[in-house]
Specification:
Number of helices of chain B: 9
CATH architecture of chain B: 3-Layer(aba) Sandwich
Low-confidence stretches of chain A: none
Largest interface: A-B, 23 and 36 residues
CATH topology of chain A: ABC transporter involved in vitamin B12 uptake, BtuC
Shape of chain B: globular
Largest sheet of chain A: none
Mean pLDDT of chain A: 86
Number of domains of chain B: 1
Distance between the termini of chain B: 44 Å
Distance between the termini of chain A: 28 Å
Strand content of chain B: 25-35%
CATH class of chain B: Alpha Beta
Oligomer: heterodimer
Structural class of chain A: mainly alpha
Largest sheet of chain B: 6 strands, mixed
Mean pLDDT of chain B: 91
Order of helices and strands of chain A: HHHHHHHHHHHHHHHH
CATH class of chain A: Mainly Alpha
Number of strands of chain B: 12
Number of domains of chain A: 1
Order of helices and strands of chain B: EEEHEEHEHHHHEHEHEEHEE
Helix content of chain B: 25-40%
CATH superfamily of chain A: ABC transporter involved in vitamin B12 uptake, BtuC
Structural class of chain B: alpha/beta
Strand content of chain A: under 5%
CATH superfamily of chain B: P-loop containing nucleotide triphosphate hydrolases
Number of strands of chain A: 0
Helix content of chain A: over 70%
CATH architecture of chain A: Orthogonal Bundle
Strand order of the largest sheet of chain B: 6-7-8-3-9-10
């Protein structure tokens, strides 16, 4: 590992520690040392920090890491720097499933049948979002007839995204009470993260990150083109499918816990490549940490910028991410 | 003499159009240049020989064994392939790119050992890339990138080397260097290269002429029948002339 790459990883790790501390200190009344001292004297401090701020802070870090990893996987897999983790239908699939659960009552009254509607309402939003995200990717894979062709996969993802979004719109029209829930889901929020979420997200990261690192040389070889990668003895269809599964698992887990948090998956790999470009093994690892830092920074900002009110974290990441991409485009034009 | 790679009645279609029509070819140890007009099917032939294209009919044998009987990784250790105008963009350094050539030996999960690093060093030196091995691919010119890709193919250390236009983007000194390199490699193994540059192709031990998806002539570089077939295939826009012990092709410019 070169010195630049090592320095970036160290800087990201150090920023992570600072932001984790900031996440513990940031409360509903914003930043204040006096507030923090008062909280520490409070007998309920353990409850507030231990049960609310700590899981939320850690959960935001883990969600960001999964999104950063998924973004780096998507951009390596599609060899496109504008690819994002939601490209294969996971976002629209999760959104549709969430709307279906929220609209279950109305749908039951409108003829879906009480058993089906009852089952939907019992599923719960988190499970629905996860299953929906995986379902969206599965549908994309079916439409693309596997993962052999990158372009077909990409087009199938776009089609699935459009169709499932249209279905969500249709459901929302039939059951307007689902609109608010859908909106919250689409804006993304770290407010509901608890220790259960952290456990799930942590397990997801522990499983997907090492597996992605093991497969990273496939992404390196794909830089040479499909034929050259195959000539190196790589079973591309199977490896690509494995990478798509990792991408779907990482995205599905993140989406199920926080809703759609935009731009983290897109911006994190860009940030890493800009500061310390390298082989995919490094980019995947550093993008995961960069994604974690970005989302946690956005979460702390969302909690404190207009305290005591809270901004949806997805709105902040979208604004920051959009400005960052605009800057990037401007710099490229100047170059 | 042992035939390293042999194809019999090979037919290949691309996008519904048959590009190769029952081609039979034998690649013996030494350097074979594959030449022909644009769209003749040279690159398709090379890809089919490397097992990278599905065949409509026919069979390819590697060291006497049908190509389909080799595992993908085993085949990759025996045939190194360089793509026509190969891609090499992104954030990898030159050395990281060349190290990919060791994948057939290491697999996805193996870590490169001293022997792998030695082979990478040799490939970098043979293609004169060693001086800028820490540079990233996006910082290279077309010619420099082509030499890196050639180094990546050499790093495989395969007994059969299939190169699709290895001299593309290279300036004359580096074209000559590649020819010398191929002549050296041909002493230890089998090299086949598609070449558009006829003077360079005539430096090979054997020349195979492909036209309209068929092998229409094949022979040693000094074979008069081959020279006649080359002139005809290129609409008599060239003539072949002896210079010392070798032959070269000159354009008829009026």
């Amino acid at each position: 590992m070169t010195a630049t790459r090592r320095r970036l990883l160290l800087a990201l790790a150090a920023t992570s520690v600072l932001l984790l501390l900031a996440g513990l200190a940031a409360g509903g009344d914003g930043w204040s040392a006096a507030g923090l001292m008062q909280l520490l004297r409070d007998p309920d401090a353990g409850l507030i920090i231990g049960q609310i701020r700590a899981p939320r802070t850690l959960g935001a870090w883990l969600t960001g890491a999964l999104l950063g990893l998924a973004g780096a996987l998507a951009q390596g897999l599609f060899r496109n720097p504008l690819a994002d983790p939601f490209l294969l239908g996971s976002a629209s699939g999760a959104s549709l499933a969430v709307v279906a659960v929220l609209a279950a009552g109305t749908l039951g009254a409108q003829g879906l049948g009480p058993p089906a509607a009852g089952m939907l309402s019992r599923v719960g939003l988190v499970a629905a979002a996860f299953v929906g995200a995986l379902g969206g990717v599965l549908l994309t894979l079916l439409l693309a007839r596997g993962a052999q062709h990158t372009l077909r996969l990409l087009l199938a993802g776009v089609v699935v995204g459009v169709v499932l979004s249209a279905l969500s719109d249709l459901l929302t029209l039939a059951a307007p009470e689902a609109l608010r829930g859908r909106q919250v889901f689409m804006l993304g929020s770290t407010g509901f993260l608890g220790w259960d979420s952290c456990l799930l997200l942590g397990m997801g990261l522990v499983l997907t990150l090492p597996a992605a690192l093991r497969l990273s040389r496939t992404l390196d070889a794909l830089v040479l083109g499909e034929d050259s990668a195959r000539s190196l003895g790589l079973a591309l269809p199977q490896l690509r499918l494995a990478l798509v599964c990792l991408l779907a698992a990482a995205t599905g887990l993140a989406v199920s816990q926080t809703g759609l948090v935009a731009f983290v998956g897109l911006a994190a790999p860009h940030l890493v490549r800009r500061c310390a470009p390298g082989a995919h093994g490094y980019t995947l690892l550093a993008s995961a940490v960069a994604g974690a830092v970005l989302l946690l920074a956005a979460d702390v900002a969302a909690r404190t910028l207009i305290a005591p009110q809270e901004l949806p974290v997805g709105v902040l990441t979208a604004v920051f991410g959009g400005v960052y991409l605009l800057l990037l485009l401007n710099r490229q034009r100047e170059a | 003499m042992t035939v390293a790679l042999r194809a019999q009645d090979l037919s290949v279609a691309l996008g519904g159009r048959t590009v190769l029509h029952g081609v039979s070819i034998e690649l013996q140890p030494g350097w074979t240049a594959i030449v022909g007009p644009n769209g003749a099917g040279k690159s398709t032939l090379l890809r089919a020989l490397a097992g990278l294209l599905p065949r409509q009919s026919g069979q390819v044998w590697l060291q006497g064994r049908p190509l389909d009987d080799w595992s993908v990784r085993e085949r990759a250790r025996h045939i190194a392939w360089l793509a026509q105008q190969g891609q090499a963009h992104g954030d990898l350094t030159v050395r990281e790119l060349v190290q990919l050539g060791r994948l057939p030996h290491l697999g996805l999960f193996g870590a490169p050992g001293p022997e792998d690093e030695r082979q990478v060093d040799e490939a970098l030196q043979a293609t004169e890339c060693a001086a800028w091995q820490r540079r990233r691919l996006q910082q290279l010119s077309g010619g420099e990138r082509q030499r890196c890709l050639l180094a990546r193919a050499l790093a495989v250390c395969a007994p059969v080397l299939l190169l699709d236009e290895p001299t593309t983007h290279l300036d004359p000194p580096h074209q000559v260097a590649v020819v010398r390199l191929l002549q050296g490699l041909a002493l230890q193994g089998t090299v086949a290269s598609v070449l558009h540059d006829l003077p360079l192709a005539l430096q090979a031990d054997r020349v195979v002429l492909v036209r309209c998806g068929r092998v229409v002539a094949a022979g040693r570089h000094d074979d008069p029948a081959l020279h006649a077939a080359l002139c005809e295939a290129f609409d008599h826009a060239i003539h072949i002339q002896r210079i010392g012990t070798r032959f070269t092709a000159l354009h008829k410019l009026g």
